[in-house]
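Appendix C reproduces, verbatim, an entry submitted by the partner laboratory led by Prof. M.T., so that reviewers can inspect both the input and the predicted structure.
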Amino acid sequence: MHKHTQCLMLLNKADLLPEALRRKWADYFDSKGVKFVFWSAFRCITRQRAEKTAAAQAAGFKVEREALSEDPRLQVLDEEGLLQARLRVGVKEWV
């Protein structure tokens, strides 16, 4: 890679990892200076189904959501969150 190329490690299927394990990986990557995000295609699908969830809630069904971690490094991202993270860590383009 070119010396000016910036990398962002995308860790897929992160929704399958418990928060404690994501925290250990986050600590490790931070200690090595690696820019990373946790990604989940499943979260993308879930986000696309938000209207159906809202309809179910309106019909009186209880829909549980995963609580957000206090540590932003451990958040599992969907496609919109990935784009925001890319900008946050300074990756200007995808390769």
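Residues 9-88 form one domain. Additional entries are available on request from the coordinating office.
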